[in-house]
Amino acid sequence: MPKVGIGVTDGPREATINRSEANPLLPEDGGMTVETVTPDELEAAESTPGVVRETVFETANNVMVRSRVAPGTTTGWHHHGDRHVYGYVIEGSGAVEYGSSGGETAETSTGEFFYISPGTVHRDINPTSEETVVLVNFVGTGPAVVNVDGPGAE
């Protein structure tokens, strides 16, 4: 993990990053940068029925997407391989079903954060009549989505 801090030099203060080894979460050129992306600049990502995904940022080990989940959508069972999933509900509400038999449920709503550990088989549900918008960050390597037949399936 890079150490980010403010260094004092003979001149004005400047932000510095101490890199002891390459950090795959940084942009490919490894340099310090600030990027902004407007909603109109998002790039289409692989989507599934009822879920439209758009890429916000992507590096070798980090993919951030905005997902729009249509009302009444239940995705198929899947997991995210070796990736950690961190999310924030921008708008709406939904649920994630998971567990060895799929019987556990975690509910989320506007302003809440969630985490899904690598390999956790689950499905996403929007049981409402309104669209749910979620910002999701996939951290790690390998496929972002692995579809499976259900809980207990590989």
UniProtKB/TrEMBL annotation:
Residues 1-31 are annotated as: Disordered. Pfam families: Cupin_2 (PF07883). Residues 67-136 form the Cupin type-2 domain. This is Cupin domain-containing protein. The lineage of its organism: Archaea, Methanobacteriati, Methanobacteriota, Stenosarchaea group, Halobacteria.
